[in-house]
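for ur thesis appendix - DUF4185 domain-containing protein. copy paste whatever u need, i formatted it the way the template wanted (i think)
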Amino acid sequence: MRGIWFFDDWMLERRDCLERVWGKPTFVKEIFKEFYPAGWDGYGGYPTAFYDERLGKYALYLIAFPGRESRDRTPGISAGEFQFRLLSDDPCNWPNPVYNPTSGPAWRSFDDVVVDQDGAPIWAHAVHSLAGTPLAERGYASAVLDVPRHLTWGGFSDDGVRFTVDRSGPWLDPGSDIAGDILWNREAELYQLFVRPVYGDRRIAMSTTADFTQFTRPVTIMQPDALDRVGTELYDMPPRPYEDFYIGLLNIMTSDRFEEVSLSSDWPQIKYFGRMDTQLAYSYNGLYWYRTKREPFIGVRDYGQVGGGSAYGKEMLRTQDDRLLFFVIGDYGGHAARVDKETEWPYGSGYRSPMLYEMRLDGFCSLKTWGREGVLRTKVIIPRDGEMRLNVRTMAHTG
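the 3d part is after this line
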């Protein structure tokens, strides 16, 4: 343990005249103003962003979503999406994807589309670099979603774009309708795959593996509880390392209480409509997770703006110069609103779009006095190197 971050009081013996203040990222900008091809909904999905040491650039992976009437869909992938990669020297500024219109499926008009060993597009749910882990020589890893067969395959890549997908043995069977975010747990020396327990079960589950060959059965680690309003669903949770513990961007769906679920549908237990925002979760060891204050860490914006109906916090990126950036997928409407949006929003206008947020590196949580002074006493702490650093800010600070 290298620090006390005040997400809870378990290391404290006394806290008087000090209140816990939760920080939030601030909106920076919508990353894109142009969207290709015409008639498609925009870019989103389950993005990942990281500094790629092999390339010496930042990488951002996004999914292009077709509109309802799009004819140039990707065959064989869910609703016809495809995934592509962008590269940039500046994680705050990203180029538009290279788009050269051709006939046939839209994905053929893009550069750096994520494909399998046969050159066919795949939904590589969340691409991660394996740099700094025991399997770094395998390059990049991703779970690959097989929607029709309810399976989660695994794929590895030398270049981050062309993946070798082993379809002889799935990572998870049955899989989930989110293929899973990968986290390397340095303390447990395990790779963790964050998924749902089964298709349509909107809770957070976790499977572990040491070698991407043998996986444990997914175990539910987080579900709505008595502090949540009725109809709350835990949609997804990308986990990321932060200092000496872990942060989870918990996507919360507040479902429409008046929506009637059809028993004749493929997934009769699922509600499609509702607001999407992001709360904060944390873990000291990556295995056991806790939730913070039940309010949005990244909330929806005003109606009529990108993110006015949904704000999916999907990536936390600590840059090479120690800035803390968040990549958030925003929709103009709530979850599944695009299903019937032809009467409310024109196609091809960025209905779904990534947004950039930023927060100071230590901005998650702090203790603040409401009086002249506060009293804080910790449990016994024995510094390993004989030194201790305090992070303190006063009214006189201007920085």
